[in-house]
Specification:
The complex is a heterodimer of chains A (113) and B (113). Chain A has 113 residues and is an all-beta fold. In chain A, a hairpin with an 8-residue loop joins strand 10 and strand 11. The radius of gyration of chain A is 14 Å and the shape is globular. By secondary structure, chain B is an all-beta fold. In chain B, the strands form 2 sheets. In chain B, strands 2, 4, 5, 6, 9, 10 and 11 form a 7-stranded mixed β-sheet that branches. The radius of gyration of chain B is 13 Å and the shape is globular. The chains are: A mainly beta (113), B mainly beta (113). Chains A and B meet through strand 5, strand 6 and strand 10 of A and strand 5 and strand 10 of B.
């Protein structure tokens, strides 16, 4: 079956530090990959996506590259801000006809001034 | 305009009661979902409907019954509430191609006392 594994948190960083949240996946076929963000007390928002190998998704200074050879989709940001404090979820959608978005367990990021 | 709206946002109720959560989307999407998020932030799909037809029904107690009167609405009814049902419930929707993943509502925090 499909599965997503992401690094366990919580992660605490100082403002302007470099962020990496690791994500690896197992899937049949060629999945689409996503990062969602959940700010405190809110629902999930799509942060970025990639639909095929070597695609790079980017948004709000965050980036992730779809690496088929390592089955990874690591999230990075060069300089985090306090407003980036949230829970980040890696997710995949595999193959045609699949209706289920499979999530990782989430990584809580806290950025301190 | 809110794309996916859920009501109520908070729900506190006693064990044994029956309650409903409503969800509506104005995006014209064909598929709607219910997810449960536990206290550790883990997201698990419960149900999915495509054009009012049930297509995913994960291992969920039959006290949970989804109802889709039309493709813009997917309500969740829960009978005989138990303490373990306390969680945040998210509604989501997607177009059939799901290229952009899902659009989520802001969640309903259910507390059973």
């Amino acid at each position: 079956g499909n599965s997503v594994t992401q690094m366990e948190g919580p992660v605490t960083l100082s403002e302007e530090a470099f962020l990496t949240i690791n994500c690896t996946y197992t899937a049949t076929g060629y999945p689409s990959l996503f990062w969602y963000v959940q700010y405190p007390g809110e629902g999930l928002q799509l942060l970025l996506k990639a639909t095929k190998a070597d695609d790079k998704g980017s948004n709000k200074g965050f980036e992730a590259t779809y690496r088929k050879e390592t089955t990874s989709f690591h999230l990075e940001k060069g300089s985090v801000q306090v407003s980036d404090s949230a829970v980040y979820f890696c997710a995949l959608l595999s193959g045609a006809g699949s209706y289920q978005l499979t999530f990782g367990k989430g990584t809580k990021l806290s950025v301190i001034p | 305009d809110t794309a996916v709206s859920q009501t109520p946002k908070y729900l506190v109720t006693q064990m044994g009661n029956d309650k409903s959560i409503k969800c509506e989307q104005n995006l014209g999407h064909d598929t709607m979902y219910w997810y449960k998020q536990d206290s550790k932030k883990f997201l698990k799909i419960m149900f999915s409907y495509n054009n009012k037809e049930l297509i995913i029904n994960e291992t969920v107690p039959n006290r949970f019954s989804p109802k889709s009167p039309d493709k813009a609405h997917l309500n969740l009814h829960i009978n005989s509430l138990e303490l373990g049902d306390s969680a945040v419930y998210f509604c989501a929707s997607s177009p059939n191609d799901r290229v952009d993943g899902y659009t989520f509502g802001s969640g309903t925090r259910l507390t059973v006392v």
